[in-house]
UniProtKB/TrEMBL annotation:
It comes from Patiriisocius marinistellae. GO terms for molecular function: metal ion binding. Its cofactor is Fe cation. Residues 14-120 form the Pirin N-terminal domain. Binds 1 Fe cation per subunit. InterPro entries: Pirin, Pirin_N_dom, Quercetinase_C, RmlC-like_jellyroll, RmlC_Cupin_sf. It comes from the Bacteria. Transmembrane segments: none annotated. Residues 156-235 form the Quercetin 2,3-dioxygenase C-terminal cupin domain. Fe cation binds at H58, H60, H102, E104. This is Pirin family protein.
Length: 238
């Protein structure tokens, strides 16, 4: 078993007035040669965006981009013709593929927008760009982890998928819960991120916004405290 700890206090920081961001991996002005990625997971950003502000039109290519708002409303527009809003309780997935441009703006003029954005390397190059959006709150089962993103060949009709052998799980726990998680492949690792509350991963204590990567293991032991939320991202390590 191999592990790496990323306490919340060690994340990169950016504060531009309109954006207050924390970076789990090297991004923008934050560079750490030991934190370039975790397997196929390249980016996990924790952003707070001021009212009516955001990211103007910008390009992406050959990356799976997953956005999960925590509060507020995101206004999205892209070069594929998609335009609309993404709210807390929704998930947005874009396969940038051969190339897209999009903008991301806080739709509210009196409320901050809080979101997580993940970038996962695609396992196919230059695919046709695609967009998907789904309400995930109704899918979540209390006190257990729920897969909200799956690989394309594992997703059932209507499930959110990406061009990578990767899974994203969310868990909302309203009571102390002990469980185990089995990786789908020996070539995979899991990046566990504590959104709120506290948990122990293989007997290692983690607090709010702490993260832990774990690989070369078949089974992960998870003990979650009451009123805690976590995200588990399973990705290929090669």
């Amino acid at each position: 078993m191999k592990t790496i700890l990323h306490p919340a206090s060690t994340r990169g920081i950016a504060n531009f007035g309109w954006l207050d961001a924390r970076y789990s991996f090297s991004f923008a002005n934050f560079y750490d040669p030991n934190r370039l990625q975790f397997g196929a997971l390249r980016v996990l950003n924790d952003d707070i965006i001021a009212p009516s502000m955001g990211f103007g039109e910008h390009p992406h290519k050959n990356m799976e981009i997953i956005t999960i708002p925590q509060s507020g409303i995101l206004k999205h527009k892209d070069s594929m013709g998609n335009e609309g809003i993404v709210k807390a309780g929704d998930i947005q997935v874009m396969s940038a593929g051969s190339g897209i441009e999009h903008s991301e703006i806080n739709a509210k003029d009196n409320e901050e927008l809080s979101l997580f954005q993940l970038w996962i390397f695609s396992n196919e190059q230059n695919v046709t760009p695609r967009y998907d959006q789904k309400k995930i709150q109704p899918l979540l089962k209390t006190n257990r982890l729920t897969a909200i993103v799956k690989p394309r060949d594992k997703a059932l009709d209507g499930e959110v998928w990406i061009h990578q052998d990767a899974y994203i799980h969310l868990g909302n726990f309203n009571k102390k819960t002990t469980t185990t998680f089995s990786l789908n492949s020996k070539a995979h690792g899991a990046y566990v991120y504590i959104i709120n509350g506290n948990a122990e991963i293989n007997n290692i204590k983690l607090n709010k916004r702490d993260a832990m990567g774990i690989w070369d293991v078949d089974l992960i032991e998870i003990s979650v405290e009451k009123d805690s939320d976590l995200m588990l991202i399973e990705v290929p390590m090669n």
